[in-house]
Amino acid sequence: MKNTNTLLSVASALIIMAFVLFIMMSMYIYPMMVTFKLTVRQLYKNAFLFAIMKFLPNLLIIIACLAVIILPFYFYPVLGYILMFFITFGLISYITNFYVYSKMDKYMIQPVLNKGKNTEEPDRSEPEKTEEITDGKDEEKE
């Protein structure tokens, strides 16, 4: 096989793009899984929509996470190993979840909450006055 084979180049590019898209989708799958009760099909559909809708910010998040992993090894290899075990995994999780939850809140949680407020339901922000139920023993003491 020659290096100039265009079919092989196109196939490789498509596989790389699909892999990057899958990485972007995986950033959204776990937070949606623990926040909402969705089927597997709904999880992947929503994750795909978020990955496409926010492609450039997702790409920047992936690049930032790769920089957090690679740069310590490039400058100080021993420090890279120490940071990998103590800081890197948690920092990457924090970066991705900080971004992902804000988007889930904006596009999934808030519309549901606002939809509930727009219906003709009573305002539940103030507690309703209820009568206290006594068993009659307090009245006997007085």
Q: What would a concise description of this structure say?
A:
This protein has 5 helices and no strands. It is mostly helical and 142 residues long.
Characterise this structure.
With about 140 residues, this protein is mostly helical. The protein has one domain (about 10-110). Helices cover about 80% and strands about 0% of the residues. It contains five helices and no strands. It has helices at about 5-35, 40-55, 55-75, 75-120, 135-140. The chain starts with 5 loop residues before the first helix and ends with a helix.
List the helices and strands and how they pair.
Layout: H1 6-35, H2 40-53, H3 55-75, H4 77-118, H5 137-141
Task: Write out key terms for the chains shown.
142 residues, 5 helices, single chain, mainly alpha
